[in-house]
Design a protein that fits this description.
The protein has 14 helices and 19 strands. By secondary structure, the protein is α+β, with helices and mostly antiparallel strands. The chain has 3 domains: about 200 residues, no CATH class; about 210 residues, no CATH class; about 190 residues, no CATH class. Strands 2-1-5-4-3 form a 5-stranded antiparallel beta sheet. It has a 5-stranded antiparallel beta sheet with strand order 7-6-10-9-8. A hairpin with a 6-residue loop joins strand 8 and strand 9. Helix 1 runs antiparallel to helix 13 and helix 6 runs parallel beside helix 7. The chain starts with a helix and ends in a 13-residue tail after the last helix. It comes from Streptomyces coryli.
């Protein structure tokens, strides 16, 4: 019994110390930690954008070489022009002789070549004299009956979209800047800072002149598979922040919480000692006195419920040992109501639970926190909007890449109609984005296909005369999107995208919930599961910071629909057929996810309250198992003995104070039985018969 009480006191003191140390210790440094985290997330998004673009470049050139090498023989110049027209993503393209490195035909800007290319080298990143860099890729070009040639392409490093006040850099293994975009891309001081911060792969803050302004740098490695990771690239994003993003916490909250828990811990310990331990110890002492034969002093124990009933039963046993036969009549009806011991344990649990609930309520984010953190929250809103815009741009480029791949496949299908089915099967099996590929004639009939069955779509009588992207359905279980490439006016090549392709660009760490919605405001993609063609969940989603007009409360669970969120909306705009779809990307992130001091205090207070409540429930359950439940059994046993039932043998469950009471009751039962047997063995004296006078 002493162990759970001591353990509860120790645990509460530990939570008290944790509260004093952690709560109120959420002060930011020169720049808010939430802003640093946001810049790191943006750098990781940028690294994913650069990595996916590099991976796509490495796959596109071998695919184009295979497709055009399988077609009819043409002069090198026409071959290079056809490939460059189908894949409008390379800055330069050349067909060269591997043995000498001599270019046979070229298109676009000059491709950096250096002597013989036997065997074909691996892709490399080549810096240019003007400070830029080119990704140079190689692919063998083999046509039947012709010597093997080498197709060489040079492409620029694709960077994330530009943002207001933001500059993005791509650095190589030695910290050399290979590509840059943004307002300060040519700043030499910034380039030196980027070269020094890039290998750290974390967000750092640097003072940027007078006035308290800071420059925040976030960097992340480009690791999109082995082929891309071997380049050793790093994406670094830099943003200039105004003063005031850092916020401070209030240490008095920690002092208030720790002192209040200390008072609760002292009160709980005293209640358990007085209301639980003292009655049990007095019952143990009284039963021990009766076992020793000390039957002159009456049994008195304070309390109600089990302690009072057991005291009455022990008093009846004491009188029975003295030879005084009095009926056992306890003042309280047995096993009804709550005893003083149970009431003390419940009151202690209620005190701790009250503190656990009151502490987060007293330390929630209030209006003062909004004022102190206003600059940081505004920066977080801008960062969320930028991430949403970058995600929309990545989605647009992904769909355009798929449409470009289909357009590059169309010439081979048109010129080699007898091999169309085989080409489509190879494209579907090649691990691309396609769910199905098929050729449609003017009547909407499928001439040949590969992959799954086509989606039922009413094609217009006039087939698209140029490349297009179409949304094939607006209801159903899965959204269907297709890219269309014309095949000479009499037929079109259709490629349906897998539904998962539309959700892949939405997977970003720390962005919250992200959806892709169509022109009818129906969801067709999501990063955490979604129901196709359902409306967006929630209300007030498009307010940038709804928390400016909401009242504070306990956590997002209690805030409900009024929980402050960072929300943004970005349409898929830009050149290409994707803009005609009317799609947009919508993101929503609870503000409580940010590492702001007010929410850090909320979370730490909730953690402290939860730990204190767990400690109280754990020790209360322990007391119930080893004290309260055995004490009720001892109450039943003592009442049965006092009422004259002395046949049942009593066994203690635990080797503790309540177990000692049960052992003493068993000894009293045996003593009473022995006394009864002794009295029964002594023959009663028969009175002499009285004779009546006659």
């Amino acid at each position: 019994m002493r162990l759970p009480i001591a353990l509860l006191a120790a645990l509460l003191l530990g939570v008290c110390a944790l509260t004093a140390v952690t709560v109120g210790d959420g002060d930011d440094g020169p720049v808010s930690q939430s802003v640093l985290d946001a810049q790191q997330f943006i750098a990781e998004d940028g690294a994913g954008t650069v990595g996916s673009a590099l991976g796509q470049h490495l796959q596109d050139l071998p695919r184009a070489a295979r497709l055009f090498a399988a077609g009819p023989a043409e002069p090198p110049r026409r071959t290079v022009a056809a490939i460059a027209g189908s894949y409008q993503k390379w800055r330069g393209l050349a067909l060269v002789e591997p043995a000498t490195g001599r270019p046979l035909a070229a298109a676009g800007e000059g491709v950096p070549l250096a002597g013989p290319l036997m065997p074909a080298p691996r892709a490399r990143i080549t810096p240019l004299p003007d400070g830029q860099a080119r990704l140079v890729t190689y692919a063998p070009f083999r046509r039947p009956g012709q010597p093997e040639r080498l197709l060489v392409a040079a492409g620029a490093l694709r960077l994330p979209p530009e943002g207001e006040g933001r500059t993005t850099f791509v650095t190589g293994p030695g910290g050399r800047v290979l590509a840059a975009s943004g307002e300060r891309w040519a700043d030499p001081r910034l380039r030196r800072l980027v070269s020094a911060a890039a290998p750290q792969h974390r967000a750092v803050a640097r003072a940027d002149g007078a006035g308290g302004r800071h420059l925040v740098l976030g960097s992340a490695p480009v690791a999109e598979g082995r082929a891309v990771a071997r380049f050793g690239l790093t994406v670094t994003t830099a943003v200039d922040l105004p003063p005031g993003t850092a916020a401070w916490d209030l240490p008095r909250l920690a002092l208030l919480g720790a002192l209040s828990l200390l008072v609760v811990a002292v009160a709980v310990t005293l209640l358990l000692l007085i209301g639980v331990q003292r009655p049990v110890l007095r019952l143990q002492a009284a039963s021990r006195r009766l076992v020793r034969g000390e039957i002159d002093e009456p049994v008195r124990v304070r309390g109600w419920g089990e302690p009072r009933r057991m005291a009455a039963a022990l008093e009846a046993l004491r009188l029975a040992l003295r030879g005084e036969q009095r009926p056992y009549c306890p003042r309280e009806k047995r096993l009804t109501g709550i005893s003083s011991v149970r009431a003390s344990a419940l009151l202690c649990t209620a005190l701790v639970a009250g503190w656990a609930v009151a502490l987060p309520l007293l330390t929630h984010a209030d209006a003062d926190d909004r004022v102190r953190e206003r600059t940081a929250r505004e920066q977080l809103a801008r960062d969320q909007a930028y991430r949403t815009h970058a995600t929309a741009e990545r989605m647009r480029r992904l769909v355009l890449e798929a449409a470009a791949d289909l357009s590059s496949l169309a010439p081979s299908v048109r010129t080699s109609s007898y091999r169309a089915g085989e080409l489509l099967k190879e494209a579907v099996a090649g691990g691309g984005p396609w769910r199905s590929l098929y050729v449609l004639d003017r009547g909407g009939r499928v001439l040949t296909r590969a992959g799954q069955a086509p989606t039922g779509y009413r094609w217009p009588a006039a087939l698209p005369a140029q490349s297009a992207v179409l949304q094939l359905n607006h209801s159903g279980k899965e959204p269907a999107t297709a890219a269309v490439a014309p095949l000479g006016g009499r037929a079109v090549l259709v490629g349906e995208l897998r539904p998962s392709v539309l959700s892949a660009p939405l997977q970003h760490q720390g962005i919250g919930r992200a959806w892709l919605v169509d022109a009818r405001d129906r969801v067709i993609g999501g990063n955490r599961g979604f129901t196709a063609f359902e409306p967006l969940p929630g209300r007030g989603l498009f307010s940038v910071l709804t928390e400016w007009s909401t009242d504070s409360s306990l956590g997002d669970l209690l805030r409900g629909a009024d929980a402050p969120v960072l929300a943004a909306d970005a349409p898929l705009t830009g050149p290409g057929p994707v803009a005609a779809l009317g799609w947009r990307v919508v993101t929503e992130k609870p503000l409580s996810w940010a590492a702001l001091p007010s929410y850090e205090t909320e979370r730490r207070c909730q953690l402290a309250g939860l730990l204190a409540l767990i400690a109280a429930l754990l020790c209360a359950g322990w007391l119930h198992l080893i004290v309260l439940r055995p004490l009720r059994e001892a109450d039943r046993a003592a009442a049965a003995l006092a009422e004259g039932d002395r046949k049942a043998v009593l066994y203690p469950r635990h080797e503790d104070e309540v177990g000692a009471i049960m052992r003493n009751l068993e000894l009293l039962r045996r003593r009473l039985n022995e006394r009864d047997r002794t009295e029964a063995d002594v023959p009663a004296q028969q009175p002499e018969p009285a004779y009546a006078e006659r």
